[in-house]
UniProtKB/TrEMBL annotation:
<feature type="signal peptide">
    <location>
        <begin position="1"/>
        <end position="31"/>
    </location>
</feature>
<protein>
    <recommendedName>
        <fullName>Tripartite tricarboxylate transporter substrate binding protein</fullName>
    </recommendedName>
</protein>
<keyword id="KW-0732">Signal</keyword>
<dbReference type="InterPro" id="IPR006311">
    <property type="entry name" value="TAT_signal"/>
</dbReference>
<dbReference type="Pfam" id="PF03401">
    <property type="entry name" value="TctC"/>
</dbReference>
<dbReference type="InterPro" id="IPR042100">
    <property type="entry name" value="Bug_dom1"/>
</dbReference>
<dbReference type="InterPro" id="IPR005064">
    <property type="entry name" value="BUG"/>
</dbReference>
<comment type="similarity">
    <text>Belongs to the UPF0065 (bug) family.</text>
</comment>
Amino acid sequence: MPKDRTITRRALLHCAAWSGVAAISPAAAFAAADAPYPSRPVTWVIPFAPGGATGRLSLLICERLSLRLGQPFVLEHRPGAGGATATRSVASAAPDGYTLLATSTANVINAALDPSSTEDGADLVPVAGMARMPLLLLVNKELPVKTLPEFLAYARANPGKLSVGSAGAGTVQLLSAELFRTLGGITWSVVHYRGSGPALTDLASGHIHAMFDNAASAADLLRSGKIRALAVSTRERAQTLPDLPPVADVLPAFETSGFYGVGAPRRTPQAIVELLNREINTALADPEIARHFAEVGATPITGDTGVYAATYHAEVMRWRKLVPQASAKR
């Protein structure tokens, strides 16, 4: 795992941006044709610690890619800086299709924080989508609340006494919690982790009181009864947990969701990008993967590279509106 290095905020934001698929030089096209891809293992980088939705979704896709393309697609976790450490390492990797990044809402949020980010000159190209899914407001089972209104009342009656988990700076878990804090008129302390997995472990053990995360990450703890879900972050109820009300029922301006996809270093040959896009879309259509996605409330994101790039940039614009609200002063 590479060591974290101090870099400028501008560099972090620049690494998080995306570009359209870059044009291929004749030499690159010849190389791609001369050596069929993939001819060796592919590294699929996860920007967070094990146990989160990014890793769980990626594992399902990589298993299918390994079978269909005849080479291992190996998951490698590189947590740090809310996903920026992994983003930076993949952006600087050889543009040959053998190092890919599992992207998440953290990349979208970082790009949204940079008003000058455009497709031109960015360090990653969009390969394919994976899924969109709602987040859940989760609490430790010992917290004396069982509904969203009870939680809000308890938080307001105990200002500054609750601790909330974050999967890292710039993540959808943190921004959802901060948007909830702002709209709910409450105060609490935030505890940062290097991914959802460690935060959920501390939530179950009572070291923190609450957090936002998705059903894919929290499923095992929810089934065991160690944590409790109070509400869903989207305006629609989750198919997997239909009894959970949307946060918007109580805080009308609240709405967030997780957004997951795949990126590659800029200048990766278009033929490779398009091959991966087709294969990932084929994997998403697999009935077994569709069943797993449905179990955690994930909606597949399908389409060619152009469709996914447009979807990604629409998500950036949405978060540009949300970030100022979530970042309001305490």
